[in-house]
Amino acid sequence: MARIIVLTLALLAVIQFVMSTNPPSIEEFFKEKVRGNLTTITWKHAVNNKALLNSSLASTDVMMLEADVVLGNLQTNMTKLMPIMAHPPNTTSDLSLEEFIEIVLKNGTKGMKLDFKSIEAFNQSVEILKKFKPNMKVPVWINADILMGPVNATEEQAKPVDAKQFLSTIVKDFPEFVISVGWVTKYGTKYNIKTGNYTTHQIDDMLKTLKDNHMSQNVTFAVRAGLALNSIDAMEKLVANNTKATLTIWSSEGDEVNGDKLTNLITKIGFDKVFIDVPESVWKTLHFNKPKPGSSNYLTSNVILTFATTILSFLLVTRML
Known about the structure:
- This protein is an alpha/beta fold.
- It has helices spanning 2-19, 26-29, 31-34, 50-58, 97-107, 119-132, 163-173, 200-212, 225-228, 232-240, 259-269, 280-283, 301-320; strands spanning 43-44, 64-74, 77-85, 92-93, 111-116, 140-148, 178-184, 219-224, 246-250, 274-277.
- Helix 4 links the parallel strand 1 (43-44) and strand 2.
- The longest helix is centred in the last third of the chain and has 20 residues, at 301-320.
């Protein structure tokens, strides 16, 4: 009898998880893989067309899909302006935001990080996000660069997404989603800038912006690797301000990144506090124990949940006969 009770409680827990209206966290969804080490999460960048989306969903080596959202036109409809998956300056795509979310949710094995490139694109996406919110059974991150950052970035690089509009809408309509925020940066081969850092003013400005907009949900700070590794005190301040806060360290191809310094930063902040989304050329320079990109073999949570539900249901029924 006790065994039946235990199995019943386990089954109810699984059903409750599946039926939950809140998107699961990355830690919950990929718990068999993560085990407290967020650096094990693998990413696919700029999943902005159908071919790349389909190949990424079919790959067991990808866990999170990062994709960019702009206002533009589908290639099949050049007259209607809508949120599409593309990176500026591109304004056409074969994949709309609505199609992207629908396909990812139907697949059910990957999380998504939606990177909004303008406040206009975000505002036009709100109703789409609301439409799918009850069915968000995978991790969902909403990202935007909301402030100017290093190295003396200006609107020549990109215009920040309006922080007040973006954050107030998130707080009001999407408190269940993880908020990912960052700075517009001027760095890398395009500008021939190989060094820099996040200043105390930039960190304080970000923390004040979140506080002023009453942010209380989980937050991850998107920081550029080549700049963050020179800003250890600043990075510590970001995560110390909120026990649930994390860093997402990212890098573009061609960025100057010192592997020793980046390893030191990740170790200092903690493996339970740092996601790493960098090219393989940077990944190879890191020294801690880590899976090789593209070698993460795991059972996705959806598969595990389905299997567990089936087994528990079978055992429960057979014991009650």
